[in-house]
Input
Amino acid sequence: MATTTRLPAPTTLSDAQLRGAACVWCGRRLATTTAVDLGIRPDPQFPWASWFPRACPPCHRART
Output
């Protein structure tokens, strides 16, 4: 489920956050069954690359 909520800049995120293994906002490790998929995003700094933001349910609820 994609959201229009503003996401942090990719340059400020860890590798785990860019891969969708950790919450894009709090950095907590994500469980595959409960993580909220925020959609594939193009990297503004490297247009040929994509990143895969996901969020934990509490962070997602707080921002939608």
The mean pLDDT is 90. The chain is about 20% helix and 10% strand.
